[in-house]
Amino acid sequence: MTTATTTPILDGFDLTEEQTMIRDMVREFAVSELAPIAAEIDETHTFPKSSWDKIVELGLPGIPFPESLGGSDGGTLAYAIAVEEISRVCGSTGLTLAAHVSLGTYPIFAWGGPKLTEQYVPALIRGDYMGAYGLTEPGAGSDSGGTRTTAVLDGDEYVLNGRKCFITNANHAGVFICTAVTDKSLGSKGISAFVVPRDIEGFSIEKGEQKLGMRGSDWASLVFEDARIPKDHLLGPEGEGFLTFMKTLDGGRISIGALALGLAQGAYDEAKKHAYERVAFGGSLAKQQAVQFKLADMEVQIQCSRHLIYHAARKKDQGVRYSKEAAMAKLHSSETAMKVTYDAIQILGGYGFSREYPVERMWRDAKLCTIGEGTSEIQRLVIARAIDREV
Ligand SMILES: Cc1cc2nc3c(=O)[nH]c(=O)nc-3n(C[C@H](O)[C@H](O)[C@H](O)COP(=O)(O)OP(=O)(O)OC[C@H]3O[C@@H](n4cnc5c(N)ncnc54)[C@H](O)[C@@H]3O)c2cc1C
Q: Which of 47, 102, 103, 323 is 20 to 30 Å from 127 by CA-CA measure?
C-alpha cells in the first residue's frame, strides 16, 4: 500500500501565514492519522468517530466562524484548504467535515439570529454533536422546489410531516436544518427552513442504503411524523427557506469543490509516484509519452480547479456575490476529480484496479462530487443563469 506524498502544491496561491500553517497542520494530521485507516473505513462502511474527535480537537469545525462563538476566524479559504488536505487521503472524512460545517453549522450562524446561534453554533464548533442538512426528499432532489414535507403552525409549535433522504452525518447529528412547505399555494416561496433538535417526539432516523463510495461517511433518512418543532426554531422568516437553502449550497459548493480537489490531488500523487517508480520497456513508465501526457493533463486540471476554488472562497470572504464562482469551482473540480482518478487507475494498471491501492477508492468517492449539493448539470444551470443575468 502506498501513502500520499508531500509534493509542494500551493506555490503561487498567495496564502497568508495562517492559511499556510493550517494547511501544514491538517496535511500532517491527515497523512499520519487518516491515511492509515482510510481503506479500512471504506471497506467496513465505518464512520471513524475517533478521527472526528481529533478533527474537533484540532479546531477544524470552527475555522470559518468568529472567535466569539468558539471559532478561529480563519475564513472560508483556510476551511476549504482543510477539507482539501483531508480529502487528499480520505474523501469520506472530508465529506464529514464539509457537511458538518457548511451545511449543518453555517445556516444557523448566518440566519439563526442571536438565540439559535448561541444555542447551537458553539456546541457544533465544540463537537458536542454534529450538524446535518435535510433538503433532499425521495421525490425532490435537484428540483428541491418540489419539497413535500409540510409544516403547519399549531400554537407555539410547527408540526412537521414528511421524509428526507441521503442526509450526511444524520446518525451522529444533534441538530438538523430542514425544509418544509408552510404554504403550498406559493410554490418555492412557500418553503420554510427549520432547526430541528434531534430529541423531539415524532422525529426519527432511518438507516441509509449501502453506498458506492464515501463509505466512511454516514448518511440516513429523516422521518417526520407529527414532529413538533418550537416556533422559535424557524430559521429566518417564513417562506424564505428555499432561498436560505440555496445560499447555503453556494457555500457548500466551495467545500465540495475542495473535497474533489483533494481527491484529484491524492490520485495524481499516487499516479505520479507509480509512474516514476514502475519500470517497463527498459525505463520508468513516466518516460512513456502516453503516460507523460496524462500526468500533464492531470496537473493542468488540478491547478485550474485550485484557482477556481480559492477564488470563490476569497469572494465569499470578501462578502460579495459568489454563487457563479462557487458553481464553476464545484463543476470543474468534480469533473476533474472523476477524470484524474480514472486516469490514475489506468496509470497504475492492475494495481490501480486492486483494492490494495487507494486510487479505485478515490474514483468511487469522487463520483459523489458530481451529485451532492447540486449535480454537475445543476451547476451548469446555475452558471448559465448567471451568464444570462450578466448579458
Ligand atoms: C453521498 C451523498 C450525500 C448526500 N448528502 C446530502 C445531505 O446531507 N443533505 C441533502 O439534503 N441531500 C444530500 N444528498 C442528496 C443530493 O444532494 C441529491 O442526490 C442531488 O441533489 C440530486 O438529487 P436526486 O438524487 O434526487 O437526483 P435527481 O434530481 O432526480 O437527478 C437525476 C439526474 O437528472 C439530472 N437532472 C435533474 N434535473 C435536471 C435539469 N433541470 N436539467 C438537467 N439535468 C437534470 C441530474 O443532474 C441527475 O443527473 C446526498 C447525496 C449523496 C450521493
A: 323
- Please report which helix (H) or strand (E) contains residue 126, including its range: helix 113-126
- CATH topology (fold) of 243-390: Butyryl-CoA Dehydrogenase, subunit A; domain 3 (1.20.140)
Testing ligand 1's pocket by substitution, the residue of 221, 371, 380, 383 carrying the most ligand atoms inside 8 A of its CB is 371
Q: What pLDDT digit, counting tens, does each position of 123-139 carry? A: 999 999 999 999 999 99
The CA distance from 236 to 231, in Å, is: 11
Does 187 have pLDDT greater than 90? yes
Is 238 among the catalytic positions?
A: no
Q: What is the pLDDT of residues 138-174, one digit of tens each?
A: 999 999 999 999 999 999 999 999 999 999 999 999 9
CB-based contact 92:365 (threshold 8 Å): yes
Asked whether 142 lines ligand 1 (CB < 6 A), one says yes
Crossing angle of the two packed helices 49-57 and 91-98, in degrees rounded to 10: 60
Report how far residue 384's alpha carbon sits from residue 252's, in angstroms, rounded to the nearest whole number.
Answer: 19
The string of DSSP codes covering 7-68 is ----TTS---HHHHHHHHHHHHHIIIIIHHHHHHHHHHT---HHHHHHHHHTTGGGTTS-GG
Tell me the pTM.
0.96
Q: Does domain 17-130 have CATH number 3.30.428.10?
A: no
Which of 57, 85, 373, 377 is catalytic? The answer is 373
Element (H, E) at 196: strand 191-197
The CATH architecture that domain 132-239 belongs to is: Beta Barrel (2.40)
List pLDDT tens digits, range 5-39: 444 444 678 899 999 999 999 999 999 999 999 99
Could you tell me which of 243, 349, 307 has the C-alpha nearest to residue 11? 307
